[in-house]
Design a protein that fits this description.
Order of helices and strands: EEEEEHEEE
Number of domains: 1
Number of strands: 8
Oligomer: single chain
Distance between the termini: 43 Å
Helix content: 10-25%
Structural class: mainly beta
Strand content: 25-35%
Largest sheet: 6 strands, antiparallel
Length: 141
């Protein structure tokens, strides 16, 4: 039986969980430390750690989001994100632990044999500083 061709380096890895994650805006609060999971690195989940700063409208989803500060700065120190993209680092809540475990299971199965940093290509940042998941991109927002 022949193997399917390898996935292009430019094609995002399917995200089986985040688009359907049901987490409320109230689950997070200003001061929380969170991570936006983006892939794997050396057999572990990898992402950007940020601090929740203030409520902010998430334009790509037309829903309440959170303004986040990336302490490492870079090209963009502040972004607005939808709550379903966020996972608590500052506390161990059951909702985030269940999501973390499920993402770990899904990605470890797919990338078990790879040690390098793997960015799954799920997120982009708009010109207005809105972090948006590929499943939420619509109509030029």
């Amino acid at each position: 039986m022949s193997q399917p061709p390898p996935t292009s380096a430019f094609a995002p890895t399917p995200d089986p969980l985040t688009p359907d994650r049901d987490i409320t805006h109230a689950h997070f609060q200003a001061g929380d430390t969170v991570v936006v999971l983006k892939g794997m690195a050396g057999g572990d989940l990898w992402g950007d750690a940020m601090r929740v700063v203030a409520p902010s409208w998430h334009t790509p989803t037309d829903e309440d989001g959170w303004r986040l500060r990336d302490a490492t700065g870079g090209a963009q120190s502040y972004v607005t994100a939808h709550p379903r993209y966020l996972v608590h680092l500052s506390r161990r809540c059951p909702d985030c632990l269940i999501y973390l475990r499920a993402m770990e299971d899904a990605l470890l199965t797919r990338f078990a044999d790879r040690d390098e940093l793997i960015d799954c290509g799920w997120y982009t940042t708009t010109a207005l500083g809105q972090l948006v998941h590929i499943a939420d991109i619509r109509g030029g927002r």
